[in-house]
UniProtKB/TrEMBL annotation:
InterPro entries: Elsinochrome_Biosynth-Asso. Keywords: Membrane, Transmembrane, Transmembrane helix. This is Uncharacterized protein. The chain crosses the membrane at residues 26-48, 165-183, 211-233, 273-294, 300-320, 464-490.
Length: 491
């Protein structure tokens, strides 16, 4: 690099030892406490905060949150034999606390990456790897936190701008870090200056499998960034929804095919019945994947895997017995110096600020300027409309036009629900005859809604066995992410 004052020594010594000075100022304890605390608050907000906007939730998320939000009520009723009170102040406090602590991770992670790039001339690859991993983990945690803090940005759009700028800088740094760390000579010797990779970029990507992994990782990184920016600026990044629509169309092809066969074969033979069973199984698999991959739960799982990956590999680097680290390091990196103690002591600031925020929002009457008071869609299951208003939902939203706002889950939750029960409230309110299953009188106002597909998809997600299957598959995905994190590959 031209900005470096002297030529770096990138030759490999005969003893494979490149001496470097230990840096005790990279404090792992403060890092792990900060990111894990942020993740715990995000996960708590996902399951127990009733003020999360439906714009960030899918149908699977709503079903999970329906039970998690009522869990404290049942526990309190079981233990204290009394009704649980709804503490809106604690929900507001949690959003503000999550915003504060996630902002700290955003700024800290970006600052660490900036320092790594400024000192790239002399910083060993060992320490640059730790900084890059740290920045990647904080970036993943912050993007997940937007789901909880989204109501504040809805109320105060101006608060988005500086955070979007920092997130853009961080995403750019991480993009470059990914290219560096996928170089075939990366960490060949822990003490080699990072600058040596910059000077040999053209010769370090000769393996095809390595390039494929790099392209996949960068693609997911760009998509994750665009998704987060789409929440901040939906008007300008809304073009990404065209890709989601294409994915939704592909995932709904099994639904269309199964419905078409079901209408064509009114009285199926044994062979036709086997074909219908096969198409139904394919539909179940596609519908299940669409529900999981459109949910914020998947982002929660991915963030957990990222944290586990960061903890596993950063700690592994620090405890490595590789001779290029143990014999080459001059000094100790675990000494309790000012650089070690200061970050730990500074954790007291967000801790006491969080306590004050919680205290102010739960003991005093909320002021209009201090509360997150915006018209959010409720997460109740009292209407089907609440299941269709989400931008994450893969159910066709035009089908909402056939539903009455007074439609209750007492009918929806029945095990075998037919077309009459779905269309009856809409037809009844408009004076149509509903004694038969014919929905043609309702069809003029349902053009393009594809009500049969909507019916099949919605009735499926209402079945208990399908929900159990969703939970099992989500647990398997969590296990897959954890396994990938332990083996060093997460996206």
């Amino acid at each position: 690099m031209g900005i470096c004052s002297a030529q770096a020594n990138c030759t490999v010594p005969d003893n494979y030892i490149v001496p470097f000075d230990a840096d005790p100022d990279i404090v792992l304890a403060a890092f792990f406490i900060g990111v894990w605390s942020t993740y715990i608050i995000i996960a708590w907000g996902y399951f127990f905060n009733d003020r999360i906007s439906n714009d960030c939730l899918s149908d699977l998320d709503r079903w999970i949150r329906h039970y998690s939000l009522t869990l404290p009520h049942h526990i309190r009723q079981w233990i204290f034999k009394k009704e649980a009170q709804k503490w809106t102040g604690s929900s507001t406090a949690l959003i503000k606390i999550c915003l504060m602590i996630s902002d700290q991770q955003l700024v800290t992670g970006t600052a660490m990456l900036l320092i790594g790039f400024i000192t790239h001339c002399n910083i060993p690859q060992y320490y640059f790897e730790i900084i890059a991993d740290y920045g990647w983990v904080t970036n993943s945690v912050y993007q997940t936190s937007v789901m909880v803090t989204y109501p504040i940005f809805q109320q105060n759009p101006a608060m988005r701008h500086w955070r979007a700028a920092w997130m853009t800088c961080q995403a750019g740094f991480i993009f470059i870090c990914q290219i560096l760390t996928y170089h075939q000579d990366w960490l060949y010797l822990f003490g080699t200056p990072t600058r040596c990779i910059w000077e040999n970029m053209s010769t370090g990507y000769t393996k095809g499998s390595q390039m494929v992994q790099l392209i996949i990782t960068l693609s997911f990184q760009v998509w994750s960034y665009l998704f987060a920016m789409g929440i901040f600026y939906p008007r300008y990044v809304g073009w990404t929804t065209y890709f989601l629509r294409a994915v939704r169309y592909i995932l709904r092809l099994p639904t269309r095919f199964h419905v078409w066969l079901s209408r064509r074969w009114k009285r199926p033979s044994r062979l036709q019945g086997c074909v219908l069973a096969t198409t139904y199984a394919i539909f179940i698999a596609a519908h299940m994947m669409s529900q999981i991959f459109a949910s914020s739960l998947l982002e929660i799982i991915r963030a957990f895997a990222m944290l586990l990956w960061g903890f596993w590999w950063i700690t592994g680097y620090r405890m490595s017995d590789d001779p290029s680290r143990v014999e080459a390091m001059q000094g100790g990196e675990n000494e309790w110096s000012t650089g070690q103690m200061m970050p730990l002591l500074m954790l007291a600031l967000p801790l006491f600020t969080a306590i004050e925020l919680y205290w102010d929002n739960t003991t005093e009457k909320p002021k209009s300027e201090d509360t997150v008071d915006i018209p959010l869609r409720t997460c109740e299951r009292s209407t089907i409309d609440s299941l269709l208003c989400s931008t994450h939902s893969l159910i066709s939203s035009p089908a909402a036009s056939l539903l009455s706002t007074s439609y209750t889950p007492r009918i929806i939750s029945s095990w075998n629900l037919d077309a009459r029960e779905v269309f009856e409230p809409y037809c009844h309110t408009r004076g149509h005859d509903t004694d038969s299953l014919d929905v043609e009188p309702c069809r003029p106002s349902l053009s393009g809604s594809q009500e049969a597909f909507f019916q099949l998809e919605y009735l499926t997600i209402e079945k208990l066995w399908f929900r159990v299957l969703l939970v099992v598959v989500s647990a398997m995905i969590l296990g897959g992410f954890i396994t990938g994190a332990l083996f060093g590959y997460v996206i």
